[in-house]
Amino acid sequence: MQLLNSDYYANMGLKEIHAKVQAGERLSFEDGQHLFECPEPLAVGSLAHLARTRLHGDKAFYVVNQHINYTNVCVNGCAFCAYQREDGADGGFVLSVDDVIARIDDAGLAPREIHIVGGCHPRLRLAFFEDVLRAVKARLPQTVIKAFTAVEIAHFAALEGCSPREVLARLQAAGLDMLPGGGAEIFASPVRERICPRKATAAQWLAVHEQAHELGIRTNSTMLFGHIESRDDRLDHLVRLRESQDRSPGYTCFIPLPFLTENSKLKVKNPLTGLETLRTIAVARLMLDNIPHIKAYWVMLGIKEAQAALKFGADDFDGTVVEEKIGHEAGATSQQGLSRAELRAMLRGCGCTPVERDGRFNEI
Ligand code: V47
Ligand code: SF4
Q: Is residue 73 classed exposed, middle or buried when 0-12, 13-18 and 19+ CB atoms within 10 A define those classes?
């Protein structure tokens, strides 16, 4: 499918990259730099749309899902995080197993996916998380449980004095189906050391995902951008993810997360523009030729920019969500949840065919 003719891309200095995209060839780091430097973000967006359309046509996926954050108490204190509280501080909370089940019952959704994540709590032990998973599985046997970022898995392993692989195997036996993509932030160490020095390193994050893939647990991936990282750091992150997927296939989806600045200790000199966010999503689609889905996470992007992202390489809109805390503590202005009907109308409204999926990205 050719959305614009070759002369257009040649005039934009993208002749060779256009040819590579048309031929389905892999883009290099330098190609990525070229895409970031191209004076016309719409040209980059249309190339990403070409790649996205080849994979998914005009489909835009969504899922009936529920997010549950079990605690905001976290030992890591990442500089960008507005959600975290110190142990014992005002506003800290921990949900019990019964609280988690009550959240599910209150939502009354019959979700296809439950997304459970939280801070790295200093005292919650693995047995508690096994109980959570068993209780959720018993309540929702058909639902995919996507829970615990690689950072939480590494933290549980440190608390238990065992390997992340053992943690993954125990959680899988208790009902864990997938890992979410959080905690990747930016892999480049000089940036990572400034924004989240206590968190699992890039190598640890990647190792946990690759071990999960070996156990048959598929995973997602993210990138937090628009803070102190450079565009080259973003490309480095994308290339490392692509290499990880080559080594150990199992990433289903990539979620670009623009940094939301409210209530954060991290001060940013040049806040993201909407177009830079869209360009970054487009570059991600073009670089990540081996990850099938790019998620326009409406909670962090805002609904209108998430809709625009569907024309800049993204194909998934995430879901009904129900209640979200991490982005909203940081100033997300989106509402808390969307209904299936609202999601479908939003996707149709931007010229896409809405397709409901399950937690494993199978069409329903
Ligand atoms: O890892 C924290 C990010 C992530 C801020 O796997 C922030 O399907 C922006 O990973 N501004 C958690 N972002 C969310 C996440 C996620 C969300 C939806 C779906 C999936 C999935 C994963 O949120 C954290 C961090 O990168 N984050 N603070 C902030 N101020
Ligand atoms: Fe903790 Fe996650 Fe917030 Fe970092 S981003 S402080 S690991 S909750």
A: buried
Handedness of CA 345, 313, 13, 37 (dihedral sign): positive
Nearest to 152 by CA among 112, 192, 208, 83: 208
Q: How many other C-beta atoms are found inside a 10 Å radius of the C-beta of residue 325? A: 18
Question: For residue 282, what pLDDT is reported?
Answer: 98
Query: What's the CA gap between 364 and 362, in Å, rounded?
Result: 6
Q: Ligand 1 pocket check: which of 257, 268, 320, 329 to mutate, most ligand atoms within 8 Å of Cβ?
A: 257
Centre of ligand 2 to C-alpha 185, Å, is 10
Strand segments, DSSP code E, in 121-230 are 144-147, 178-179, 218-225
Centre of ligand 1 to C-alpha 259, Å, is 9
Which run of H or of E encompasses 113? strand 113-117
Query: How far is Cα 165 from Cα 213, in angstroms, rounded to an integer?
Result: 11
Say if ligand 1 is within 6 A of residue 255 CB: yes
Taking a C-beta distance cutoff of 8 angstroms, is the pair 119, 71 a contact? Answer: yes
pTM of the predicted model as reported, rounded to 2 decimal places: 0.97
Residue nearest (by alpha carbon) to ligand 1 atom 28 = 81
- With H, G, I as helix, E, B as strand and everything else as coil, classify residue 250: coil
- Helices within 217-260 (DSSP H only): 231-247
Positive or negative torsion for Cα 219, 81, 65, 151 = positive
Give dist(CA 229, CA 67) in Å, integer.
28
Contact (CB, 8 A) for 340 and 356:
yes
Q: How far is CA 341 from CA 62, 271, 338, 360, in A?
A: 11, 33, 8, 21
Q: Whose CA is nearest to atom 8 of ligand 2?
A: 119
Task: Give tens-digit pLDDT for 93-148.
Answer: 999 999 999 999 999 999 999 999 999 999 999 999 999 999 999 999 999 999 99
The residue with tokens 């053992």 is 166
Q: Nearest C-alpha to atom 5 of ligand 2 is from which residue?
A: 81
In the chain the domains, ranked by start, together with CATH numbers, are 60-357 (3.20.20.70)
Q: What is the pLDDT of residue 165?
A: 98
